[in-house]
User: Which sequence fits this backbone?
């Protein structure tokens, strides 16, 4: 378990994100970038291996009302392809406070989000495999898929309520599935 001060540090110590919500250029076109379901970014058939470059691109990524994903700058807007969700939750830290549990989630691009009403956890069921597909709503219309290991740790923290596994965090409750 993390301490309250370490959770505050994780959330505070992130560099400022670009103001992409204020940028509205015309569509420049499609760019040959595919964000794979496993979190890899592919450009013209080759994987972008520089983590700092992926972090930079992810900082200017948004999903718009048309359901499409775009890399946006003040003067350009390029549509990219996303196989599943553009980001992954790969780890988390939690603290247990008398006022309620806090959970902060780490993405594969080293950003942290606090689980709660602003960033809710949703568990859909894959219609083919019947497996849970947990995700978290982030900023700019984006979502992140929670990796299996992190999801199972969250399930262990959940309590049974009315035949459902319920996780409480950030003053909100999230159903993880039926018992």
Assistant:
């Amino acid at each position: 378990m993390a301490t309250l001060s370490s959770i505050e540090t994780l959330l505070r110590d992130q560099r400022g994100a670009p103001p992409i919500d204020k940028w509205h250029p015309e569509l420049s076109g499609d760019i040959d970038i595919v964000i794979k379901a496993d979190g890899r970014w592919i450009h013209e058939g080759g994987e972008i291996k520089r983590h700092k470059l992926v972090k930079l691109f992810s900082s200017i990524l948004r999903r718009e009302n048309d359901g499409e994903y775009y890399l946006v700058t003040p003067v350009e807007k390029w549509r990219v392809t996303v196989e599943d969700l553009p980001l992954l939750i790969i780890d988390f830290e939690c603290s247990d406070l008398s006022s309620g549990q806090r959970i902060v989630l780490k993405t594969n691009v080293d950003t942290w989000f606090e689980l709660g009403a602003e960033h809710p956890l949703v568990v859909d069921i894959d219609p083919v495999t019947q497996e849970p597909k947990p995700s978290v709503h982030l900023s700019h219309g984006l979502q992140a898929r929670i990796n299996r290991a992190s999801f199972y740790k969250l399930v262990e923290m959940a309590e049974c309520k009315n035949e459902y596994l319920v996780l409480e965090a950030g003053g909100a409750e999230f159903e993880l599935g039926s018992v």
